[in-house]
Write a sequence for this structure.
């Protein structure tokens, strides 16, 4: 191996033993345990529902679950990066509203005379990215916490969406997109394929690019990142743009599926997304986590929701169960910190 | 023979990958001050944590006043009469001194659910009185100086006495590490006073202090307790030798290792009449290839801000900075890093390493371009680069994948160094207190590294913890006072004395 970087004169001291023990360090071990623990929990959940309800373990139901997970998964990929950054994005639902209307009003539809075809998708996702850019720029330039900024943009974009909608949600008349949204490729729903592509892209970004690595660095210590010469503001804006872009894409998927652009198309998606990401093991404190874990979190929630219908739990109670689960998951994730003495700052 | 307040027998404790304590047995007598010394990672902190109830031992026995106890929590240790004073102060800044002292034990001062303020203040005053400290109990804690807050910490631990009806055992984890001069004396005097009310275990990296205040000294290396010494019959050098297994201090001797910088060497960094409103003015100096420039000065002399300016973290109001003859105008740290400047910050834990990330990730984060293949990270290359630096700087870590937080202070500092060294274009390295909080062994290694770096052609700007370090390492020393350069020394055959430098600092 050739030495990289600065050449130092050869060392004169003997190499000290580094105690090359095999055992992983506690941090790594805990992360692995968490990951496999969640996977095992998911499998047990599936087995439990299969035994309780015969209709659960059918191909058709698996497709239903996968379909139900598609849109949340796309959102969760964006949210994962946001949380790794140590930020939060509460604007997704509003952005989805605007983007879905942008899409539905620029493709062949019942309200306008426009028909941009494929370009409508580009417009919709760019709209999402644009609102994401607003999030990012206000956070970095005006130094407002992301919680407040995205809360504001949520409300703002929702308002814009309602203006666009004008009480008459546009119906999508483009049959090709309708059939794409509802169709399957070799048994896998098309939307699921799109979501899996997003997940793959997310994973590559996370593990193999500067964008991903800097997300962890900034979430782990923003001051340090700045002092190490990381262009923090640039990457912060980028991560919000990325999240907004995915919210736009998710809204297009949802609109293609239900055939209408609607200001409330993202209703309840945000809570479910944050829940899934946190259950997966990406804490709100930043610097840790990953998209694969979030995907498992999304699946867990989808299986739970679906399974509860099968065993006859009231839909109202399902909401309560989801809330309880997020609290339990967070308690579980921070359990190892309970006994340690935390320095009061 | 005094009755042992604390007796520890055959304590073992291991963490994944490391045996932190190996068959440790010590005892502490009544009103005795026991010093605990050892390198970083020798197990001192682990031992203190076990005694304080923060961590639990794998095996072994702990006896307090002849009774075996199980210290399963901090509260249990408190009940046994054991209290710890932490290195980072643990007081709430936004409440009063009295509330801090009695935090969690205000019972007596509460009537029908309401605070009885006079009573609370009076109870706190009793504790402060034991220390003869003239701190008003009703003062808000963040208005106190660092030393005063340290005394409040002591008072807080002393309050254990009233609750357990025994004089407490107090664990002091480097209470003096950030103190100098008069403040240091105040705290050391207080330790003498504490002795009248308590037994103490005192951990410090400053061996002279340990020799001064302790009645007995235990030396630890690699998780074992290797020696017990009477400070009256023991010298500093012997302690160092016990800690390291070899004599040390040679690196402070310039004659042994100093390298000369020839006058003809090229100028790396040139600073001309640099000015920052309210911080410093008319600062000019040159750094040649391979030169170590030491900056002396008290806090507020402008030297920290100057360093941050050179790194692009602060703006300038006048003057110019030339790097290799090129005029620089940094809009931010990222531009400075691109230009080949590195910065080793004083706050290692918060600004130096990201604890949750691995050693490898910490190393490459400033210069990811070194391991980039097109738009993608070359993880194999990254691993190679990281293992190269782990080996080159002899970083003691199970692997490059280990979270950086698991490393000892000295090894973390080496990770910070390698972060900058891996850049091919590194020209200037600014080191802000690079040896803060390191033990003698780690210090010596960093010493040698700094010299090697300079020899390899990097210009180094150094702010050191002590003047001794500064004199030992620098080729040139500039002294700053009130934002101006008050004196320059060239260190060659004859070094300036500490006094000479000090004269120009204040």
């Amino acid at each position: 191996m050739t030495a990289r970087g600065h050449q130092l004169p050869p060392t004169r001291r003997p190499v000290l033993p580094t105690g090359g023990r095999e055992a992983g360090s506690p941090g790594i071990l805990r992360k692995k345990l968490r990951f496999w623990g969640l996977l095992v929990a998911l499998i047990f959940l599936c087995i439990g529902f299969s035994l309780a309800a015969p209709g659960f373990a059918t191909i058709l139901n698996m497709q239903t679950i996968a379909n139900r997970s598609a849109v949340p998964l796309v959102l969760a990929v964006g949210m994962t990066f946001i949380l790794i950054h140590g930020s939060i994005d509460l604007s997704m639902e509003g952005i989805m509203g605007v983007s879905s209307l942008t899409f539905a009003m620029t493709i062949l539809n019942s309200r306008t005379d426009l028909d941009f075809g494929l370009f409508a998708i580009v417009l919709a996702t760019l709209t999402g990215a644009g609102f994401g850019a607003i999030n990012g720029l206000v956070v970095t330039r005006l130094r407002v916490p992301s919680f407040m900024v995205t809360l504001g943009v949520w409300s703002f974009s929702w308002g814009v969406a309602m203006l666009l909608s004008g009480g008459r949600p546009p119906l999508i008349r483009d049959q090709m997109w309708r059939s794409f949204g509802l169709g399957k490729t070799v048994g896998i729903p098309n939307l699921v394929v799109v979501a899996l592509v997003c997940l793959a892209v997310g994973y590559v970004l996370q593990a193999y690019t500067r964008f991903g690595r800097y997300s962890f660095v900034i979430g782990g210590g923003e001051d340090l990142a700045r002092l190490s010469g990381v262009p923090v503001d640039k990457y912060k804006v980028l991560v919000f743009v990325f999240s907004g872009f995915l919210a736009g894409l998710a809204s297009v998927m949802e609109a293609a599926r239900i055939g209408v652009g609607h200001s409330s198309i993202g209703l309840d998606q945000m809570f479910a997304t944050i829940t899934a990401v946190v259950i997966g093991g990406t804490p709100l404190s930043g610097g840790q986590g990953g998209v694969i874990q979030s995907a498992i979190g999304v699946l867990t929630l989808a299986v739970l929701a679906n399974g509860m219908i099968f065993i006859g739990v009231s839909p109202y109670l399902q909401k309560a169960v989801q809330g309880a689960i997020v609290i339990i998951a967070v308690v579980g994730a921070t359990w190892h910190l309970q006994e340690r003495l935390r320095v009061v700052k | 023979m005094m009755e042992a307040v604390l007796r520890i027998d055959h304590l073992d404790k291991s963490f994944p990958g490391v045996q932190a304590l190996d068959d440790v047995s010590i005892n502490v007598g009544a009103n005795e001050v026991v010093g605990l010394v050892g390198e970083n990672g020798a197990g001192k902190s682990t031992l203190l944590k076990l005694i304080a109830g923060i961590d639990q031992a794998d095996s072994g026995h702990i006896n307090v006043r002849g009774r075996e106890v199980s210290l399963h929590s901090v509260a249990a240790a408190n009940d046994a009469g054991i209290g710890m004073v932490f290195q980072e102060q643990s007081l709430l800044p936004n409440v009063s001194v009295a509330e801090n002292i009695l935090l969690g034990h205000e019972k007596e001062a509460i009537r029908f659910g309401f605070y009885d303020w006079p009573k609370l203040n009076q109870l706190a005053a009793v504790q402060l009185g034991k220390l003869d400290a003239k701190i008003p109990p009703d003062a808000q804690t963040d208005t106190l100086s660092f030393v005063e807050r340290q005394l409040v910490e002591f008072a807080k631990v002393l309050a254990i006495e009233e609750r357990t009806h025994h004089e407490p055992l107090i664990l002091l984890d480097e209470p003096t590490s950030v103190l100098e001069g008069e403040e240091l004396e105040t705290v050391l005097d207080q330790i003498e006073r504490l002795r009248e009310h308590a037994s103490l275990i005192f951990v410090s990296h400053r061996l002279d202090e340990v020799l001064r205040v302790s009645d007995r000294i235990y030396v630890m290396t690699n998780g074992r307790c290797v020696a017990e010494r009477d400070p009256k019959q023991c010298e500093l050098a012997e302690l160092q030798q016990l800690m390291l297994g070899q004599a040390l201090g040679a690196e402070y001797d310039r004659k042994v290792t100093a390298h000369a910088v020839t006058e003809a060497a090229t100028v790396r960094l040139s600073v001309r009449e640099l000015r920052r409103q309210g911080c410093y003015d008319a600062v000019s100096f040159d750094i040649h290839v391979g030169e170590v420039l030491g900056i002396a000065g008290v806090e507020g002399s402008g030297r920290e801000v100057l360093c941050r300016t050179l790194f692009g973290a602060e703006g300038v109001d006048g003057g110019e900075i030339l790097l290799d003859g090129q005029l620089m105008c940094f809009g931010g740290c990222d531009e400075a890093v691109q230009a080949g400047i590195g910065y080793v910050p004083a706050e290692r834990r918060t600004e130096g390493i990201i604890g949750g990330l691995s050693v490898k990730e910490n190393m490459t984060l400033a210069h990811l371009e070194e391991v980039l293949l097109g738009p993608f990270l070359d993880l194999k290359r990254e691993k190679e680069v990281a293992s190269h630096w782990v080996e080159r700087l002899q970083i003691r870590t199970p692997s490059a994948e280990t979270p950086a937080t698991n490393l000892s202070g000295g090894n973390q500092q080496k990770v910070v160094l390698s972060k900058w060294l891996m850049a091919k274009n590194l020209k200037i390295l600014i080191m802000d207190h690079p040896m803060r909080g390191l033990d003698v062994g780690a210090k010596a290694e960093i010493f040698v590294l700094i010299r090697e770096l300079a020899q390899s052609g990097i210009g180094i700007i150094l702010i050191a913890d002590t003047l001794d370090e500064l004199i030992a390492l620098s080729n040139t020393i500039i002294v700053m006072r009130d934002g101006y350069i008050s004196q320059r020394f060239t260190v060659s055959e004859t070094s300036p004395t500490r006094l000479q430098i000090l004269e120009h600092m204040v």
Remarks:
- Chain B is about 35% helix and 25% strand.
- The mean pLDDT of chain B is 85.
